[in-house]
Design a protein that fits this description.
101 residues; mainly alpha; 3 helices; 0% strand; Antibiotic ABC transporter
Length: 101
């Protein structure tokens, strides 16, 4: 009984950490891109990337989350699985944009 409780708490903790990391990375990306737009320095490939990356990340998130639900892994695991593709994309963008600026 306690094993399942600790496992559930661990998954929710990972979910909270992943969500926090995603929010920080997203804020960084938004700040840099808004400054690029305001200063007129955003390249066309960056502008198109900004628009095209979201549907792909959300499609992966829905797929991963749905797979976790189909495997009956629980709501926390499904939430975590759905956040990972979006968080990975946001962190990659934050690293790439931070290096350039």
């Amino acid at each position: 009984m306690f094993k399942e409780m600790f496992r559930a708490a661990e998954v929710w903790q990972k979910t909270a950490l992943t969500g926090t990391q995603m929010m920080v990375a997203t804020g960084t990306v938004m700040q840099i891109r808004m400054m690029q737009m305001a200063m007129g320095t955003m390249r066309p490939d960056e502008a198109s990337r900004m628009m095209l990356e979201k549907p792909a990340a959300f499609a992966r998130a829905v797929e991963k989350s749905s797979m976790a639900l189909m495997r009956n892994q629980g709501l926390a695991a499904a939430t975590l699985a759905g956040m990972r593709p979006i968080g990975t994309t946001a962190r990659a963008n934050a690293r790439r944009l931070s290096r350039k600026n």
